[in-house]
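User: I'm writing a tutorial on reading structure tokens. Could you give me a worked example: one chain, its sequence, then its tokens, then a sentence or two explaining what the tokens reveal?
Assistant: Sure. Here is the example chain.
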Amino acid sequence: MNRKFLIVESLLLALSTGLATNDLSAQQQYFDQHCPGRWVQGPSGQNCMCPDGSLANYQGTWPRGRIVCPSAQAPRAARKDWTFSFGQGTFEATVRNVGGSSVVIACVDRFTNKAPSLTLHSWNFQWRARQEAAVNFIIDDTRYSIAIPTGAGGFTLALDDPSPKARSDLEKIVLALANSNEATFAIEFPQHDYRIDVFSLSGANEALVIGGKTIVGDC
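And here are its predicted structure tokens:
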């Protein structure tokens, strides 16, 4: 696999201090061999993602440093399963993580029509009012992007009346979540320095698929 660009912080340090090309190659080989988790595609190349969903970084001075997973600063992986609820014509699938963040995917009954919705809440990310948030769902090493209005701002993003494109993007996300065999997925926020929130995939298929169709499929 070609990993000629790595987000790991030591490469940036190496470039800034003028290390020779062979030193960079040695660093890349070291990262390839010692990534403690798995590799995911990032905006500028391959990232080493730790088991808890955080991105690995290099601590110390090359070559005497070490790759570490900053678990103390990174979002914590979820330990809670997806849940499904139904009331007043609305179907709702929810997952929360131990940090208090949540994802709610629903088919909302508005009496005259139904509409899919996506609500993201996290105390880690605050949004300004009347803007558009870029959000990436990282599922099975693939990024699924969706744009969500920030509304009045704050710590919650809500996509309540999706455009045809947003509806299509949401359907792709739900299908990927429902079909994944991974233990967790991540939500990445490019406007917040590509930081992520991590959630469990346990029970996702049961919560997101009803009668052979996704919760937003016929919504």
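What the tokens reveal: Residues 1-22, 72-78 have pLDDT under 50 and may be disordered. The chain is about 20% helix and 35% strand.
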